[in-house]
Design goal:
single chain; alpha/beta; Rossmann fold; sialyltransferase cstii, chain A; 5-stranded mixed sheet; 10 helices; about 20% strand
Length: about 350
C-alpha cells in the first residue's frame, strides 16, 4: 500500500514533485492543499485520512506549518520539500525532505548566505603543526574549526566563528564536551540527529554521501541543497566558507599526514574502526586517549576532494592557500602563515 500524502501549496514545486515518476511509485497523492487556488482544505480532518503532508514552499513554509498545527495536524505528519529545483530522485533522501526537527536550521542557513561577503577566512585542521599562538592571532578573523579543537581553549581566548563535526565517532564519544562549546555557530550534518544526541541551537545541514557516484566527489557550496562529503571536514568547511561569501581561504594545521594505529575492530557497519595506541597525529597530546576508536582517513579521496574544491574556486574567482606550518598537501598554493599578516599590514 502506498503512503497517502497531500502536497501544499499548489505551486510549481508541488506540481513538479507530483509528476515525478519516483514520487508516483512511492506515494498516493490525495490532493493539493491551497487556500488561494484549487486544492483541498483540511479542517479537523481525521488523522487516519492521510499519512503525511509535504509542504513545498521555500519562502512561506513556517506560516503554512503554523496553520496546519492550528488545524490540529500532528507534527509527525508534516514533512517539508523546499528545494527550488528538482533532480532525478532514486531515494527519499535525494528529494530533500525536511522534517520539523530541522526547520529552524533551514531558516538559520538562509540567514548565513553571504554573511561575510568578500572577507577572508581561516580553516583550521588539528594536525601537529597547529600552534596555539597562531590561534590567538586569529581572534578578529572569520574562522572554522572542528572536532577536538576545544582542547586548545585552556591556553587561548580565541574561539572559532564556526564549529563543525561530521565524524560519527567524534560526535558520539565527545558529545558531553561538544554540547558545552559556546561562542561558536555549531554546524552538524542532519544524520547526527539519528544518533539521539541533538544539540540545542546547533544548525543541522544536509550532507550528501555519495562515494559510489561516477562523478564523485562533487562540490556544492550551498548547504540548503546539501554539502557534499569528501572524507575530510576541511572539504565541508570550504563549501560552507564559499556559501557565507568568503573570497580568500587559508588552511592551517592541515598536515595531511597520518600514522595509522595497528589495532582495530570491525563495527556493525562492516567498517574498520582504528584503536588509538598513542597520540601522534594531532596538536594536543591528549587528542585521543589510548583505546579510543577513530576513523581511518582516506587521503586518496581527500586529494580528489581538494582538487574539486580548487577547480571550483578557480572558476569562481576564489583563492585558497595552504598556510599550514607543516604540510604534505600540495593541491593548493602554499603561503607561510606569518606572511598572511604581513600582506594585511602593508
Amino acid at each position: 500500500m502506498k503512503t497517502r500524502v497531500y502536497l501544499a501549496p499548489y505551486n510549481d514545486i508541488s506540481l513538479e514533485l507530483s509528476s515525478d515518476i519516483s514520487f508516483k511509485e512511492r506515494y498516493d497523492l490525495l490532493g493539493f492543499i491551497d487556500k488561494n487556488k484549487r486544492g483541498t482544505a483540511i479542517v479537523n480532518r481525521a488523522a487516519s485520512d492521510f499519512d503525511f503532508i509535504f509542504i513545498c514552499s521555500p519562502n512561506y513554509f513556517e506560516e503554512i506549518y503554523g496553520e496546519f498545527l492550528c488545524q490540529g495536524v500532528e507534527k509527525r505528519k508534516i514533512l517539508f520539500h523546499i528545494k527550488k529545483t528538482m533532480q532525478i530522485i532514486d531515494s527519499l533522501e535525494m528529494v530533500n525532505f525536511y522534517n520539523h526537527n530541522i526547520l529552524d536550521s533551514y531558516k538559520k542557513i538562509k540567514d548565513l548566505k553571504d554573511k561575510h561577503k568578500n572577507k577572508r577566512a581561516f580553516l583550521i585542521g588539528n594536525g601537529p603543526s597547529l600552534q596555539i599562538n597562531d590561534l590567538s592571532s586569529l581572534k578578529d578573523e572569520v574562522t572554522f574549526a572542528a572536532n577536538k579543537i576545544y582542547l586548545a581553549y585552556e591556553k587561548t581566548d580565541w574561539r572559532p566563528t564556526y564549529y563543525l563535526v561530521e565524524d560519527d565517532l567524534v560526535y558520539k564519544q565527545n558529545y558531553k564536551k561538544i554540547v558545552q562549546i559556546e561562542d561558536s555557530i555549531k554546524l552538524f550534518p542532519q544524520y547526527a540527529l539519528d544518533w539521539d544526541k541533538k544539540i540545542e541551537k546547533a544548525i543541522y545541514f544536509s550532507m550528501k554521501y555519495k562515494p559510489n557516484d561516477i562523478d564523485f566527489p562533487q562540490f556544492n557550496p550551498d548547504p540548503l541543497l546539501g554539502i557534499y562529503w569528501g572524507s575530510t571536514v576541511i572539504f565541508s568547511m570550504i563549501q560552507w566558507a564559499i556559501y557565507i561569501g568568503i573570497k580568500e581561504i587559508y588552511l592551517i594545521g592541515v598536515d595531511f599526514n597520518f600514522t595509522e594505529s595497528e589495532g582495530y575492530v570491525i563495527n556493525e557497519h562492516g567498517r574498520k574502526d582504528l584503536i588509538c595506541d598513542g597520540e601522534i597525529n594531532h596538536f594536543h597530546k591528549d587528542y585521543r586517549k589510548i583505546g579510543e576508536k577513530w576513523n581511518l582517513p582516506n587521503l586518496e579521496i581527500q586529494i580528489k576532494s581538494f582538487t574539486k574544491a580548487k577547480e571550483y574556486a578557480q572558476e569562481h574567482g576564489i583563492k585558497i592557500y595552504n598556510a599550514s606550518r607543516e604540510t604534505k598537501l600540495n593541491i593548493f598554493e602554499k603561503m607561510p602563515f606569518d606572511d598572511v599578516f604581513k600582506e594585511n599590514d602593508e
